[in-house]
Amino acid sequence: MTVDYSVYLVTDSGLVPEGLTLYDQVKASVENGATIVQLREKHLETKEFIERAQAIHEITKKAGIPLIINDRLDVAIAVDAEGIHVGQDDFPVAKLRQILGPNKIIGLSVKDVDEAREAIKENLVDYIGIGALYATATKELKKIPMGPQGAREVLKVLRDEGGQHIKSVLIGGINDSNASRSLYTSAIPGKSTDGIAVVSNIIASKDAGLATKKLSDIVKNTTKSFLVDNNTTNINPSSEIIENVKSISPMVHQITNNVVKLFSANVTLAIGASPIMSEDANDYSEFAKYPNSTLLLNTGTVQEPQIYLKAVREYNLNLKPVVLDPVGAGASVLRRLTIKNNLNNGHYTVIKGNEGEILTAAGIETQMKGVDSVEKNSIEFLIAAAKKLALNTRSIVVVTGETDIIVDGSLTGEYYIDETVKQTVVTINGGHHFLGKVTGSGCSLGSVIASYLGSNPKTPFLATITAVALYKEAGTRAGKISSGPGSFVPNFIDELYKLTLENNPKSWTLDIKSV
Ligand code: 3NM
Ligand code: MG
C-alpha cells in the first residue's frame, strides 16, 4: 500500500469548538484534503474509544485513506485500523510488528537523532513523526521544539544511516502560516519529509474543511507561488527591474535598528521606494496586505522576539518578501539566540549579512567584534557557507564585503531537494572603502534589496543582484567625488538617486561574475 502522508490529521476531541463534534471535524477535514487520520484520544474509556474509532473508520474508509490509532493496540485491532502510532514510552515497536504483521502501518514519534538511529536499527516502522517542530499548546513537550534545523538533522540520519526508506511527517505547531516553509526548510538534498501532521489548526477550527483545504493547497500548490523559480541564466542587473521599482514604488516596512533609521529611510526614498518604520504589531497585518509591500528585519538593536516573529508571520502568510539582516549575529549569546529564533520561525526571501553574520547564521563558529566582522576567510569558504545557509533556509543569501556574494536558494517550486542540486553563485566586485566608514551602509543595502523584491516578487534572484549592483555602483561613483566619509553620505544618496533616474545598468563599471 502506498500511503499519502502529505496532510496528516491528528485528532484531539478536547479542541473541538462548541456546537461541533469530532466526527464533524474529521468528516470535513477528510472531504477537503486530509490524506491520513490518526485518532488520538487520551481520556476516553476503552469502550467509547472503540465506538468512536469505528465511526471515524467509516469516514476514512469511504475516502479510501488510512486510519491510524494512537497508542492503543487493542483499539487498533478491535476496529481493524490500517495502523498504529506510538511514542517512545508506549507499546514497543518490535512487539507491535510481531502482533500486527507486516501489512499494518506503524508510526513512531521521534524527538532527536538518537531516537531516529534507534528506529533505523530496529527497521520496523513505516514512518516517524518528527517533533515537536515548534511550540504547541496541544501536547506537553518533553523537549524544547527542534525547529527545521533539528528536523534536518533527523532527516540526515535517515538519509545517511540506512533509513532512506522510512517516511516522515513533521508535527508540532504547524499551521497555514508556517506549513510551506516547514516543508521547504526541513528538506535536505536527497531526503525530505513526506508531509505535515496537524492537530489544532484543523480540529480547533470552526471550519475544519476550509482549514484543511488551505493546508492541502499549501502542500500542493501555494508553495510554488511563494517560492518562485530562481533558475535564471541572466545575472546582469536589469533595467526592467529598476523600472518596476520606480513605477510601483513599493511600501518597504522596516523594523530596523535605532542607529540607521533616518539613513535607511532616505536611501529607500532615493531609489524610488516608500519606507515605513513600525514595530507595533497592530500595524503588521494591514501592512502585509498592501500591494507589493515587503518587510525588512534588521536586528541591530535587539528587540523582543515577538516584535520580529509576529511581523514575519504576517508577511509569510501573505506570501510577501521578507529580508533578514542579522546585524551582529555572532556578537553575544542574545544575538545568537535571536538569529536562531528568527531563522527557525520564519521564512526569508533574502538573508543578507557580512561574513561573520552569515557564518553565524550558517552555524559556523565565528569571531565578532561588536557588529563588525573580524573574520578573514577565503572567498571559497564564504561561498560554501553561503550555499549551506541558502539551502537550509531556502533563502537567497547575500554576503557583503569587498566582493559581494549572492547565492540562490534553490527555490525550484518543489520542496524536496534533489541530490544533485545546483546553486547559482554570483560575485560582484567594486564599491569604495568609504562605504565601510559610514554607519548604516550595510543596513540600508537591506532596504534597497527589500525595495527591489517588493516590486519584483517573481524574480527575486535577479532583483537581489540588481539591488546589490546598484548599491555598489553608487558607492564607487560617490567615493570618486568625496573627500571623506562626511561628504560621501550625501554624494552616495545623490548617486543612488541619479542611477535610478538614468536606469542604464549597462553603463555600470562593476565586475559581475557567475562562479
Ligand atoms: N505530538 P498541534 S507535538 C500530538 O512532538 C503531538 O511528537 C507531538 O499539535 C510530538 O498541531 C503534538 O496543535 C501536538 O500543534 C501537535
Ligand atoms: Mg503515546
TrEMBL record:
Keyword rRNA-binding found: no
PANTHER family: THIAMINE BIOSYNTHETIC BIFUNCTIONAL ENZYME, THIAMINE-PHOSPHATE PYROPHOSPHORYLASE
Catalytic function, reaction form: 4-methyl-5-(2-phosphooxyethyl)-thiazole + 4-amino-2-methyl-5-(diphosphooxymethyl)pyrimidine + H(+) = thiamine phosphate + diphosphate; 2-(2-carboxy-4-methylthiazol-5-yl)ethyl phosphate + 4-amino-2-methyl-5-(diphosphooxymethyl)pyrimidine + 2 H(+) = thiamine phosphate + CO2 + diphosphate; 2-[(2R,5Z)-2-carboxy-4-methylthiazol-5(2H)-ylidene]ethyl phosphate + 4-amino-2-methyl-5-(diphosphooxymethyl)pyrimidine + 2 H(+) = thiamine phosphate + CO2 + diphosphate; 5-(2-hydroxyethyl)-4-methylthiazole + ATP = 4-methyl-5-(2-phosphooxyethyl)-thiazole + ADP + H(+)
Family classification: In the N-terminal section; belongs to the thiamine-phosphate synthase family.
Species assigned in the record: Wickerhamomyces mucosus
Keywords: ATP-binding, Kinase, Magnesium, Metal-binding, Nucleotide-binding, Thiamine biosynthesis, Transferase
Keyword Magnesium recorded: yes
Domain Thiamine phosphate synthase/TenI: 7-202
One Gene Ontology cellular component: cytoplasm
Pathways involved: Cofactor biosynthesis; thiamine diphosphate biosynthesis; thiamine phosphate from 4-amino-2-methyl-5-diphosphomethylpyrimidine and 4-methyl-5-(2-phosphoethyl)-thiazole: step 1/1; Cofactor biosynthesis; thiamine diphosphate biosynthesis; 4-methyl-5-(2-phosphoethyl)-thiazole from 5-(2-hydroxyethyl)-4-methylthiazole: step 1/1
Protein name listed in UniProt: Thiamine phosphate synthase/TenI domain-containing protein
Required cofactor names: Mg(2+)
GO MF annotation list: ATP binding; hydroxyethylthiazole kinase activity; magnesium ion binding; thiamine-phosphate diphosphorylase activity
GO biological process: thiamine biosynthetic process
Function: Condenses 4-methyl-5-(beta-hydroxyethyl)thiazole monophosphate (THZ-P) and 2-methyl-4-amino-5-hydroxymethyl pyrimidine pyrophosphate (HMP-PP) to form thiamine monophosphate (TMP).
Domain of life where this protein originates: Eukaryota
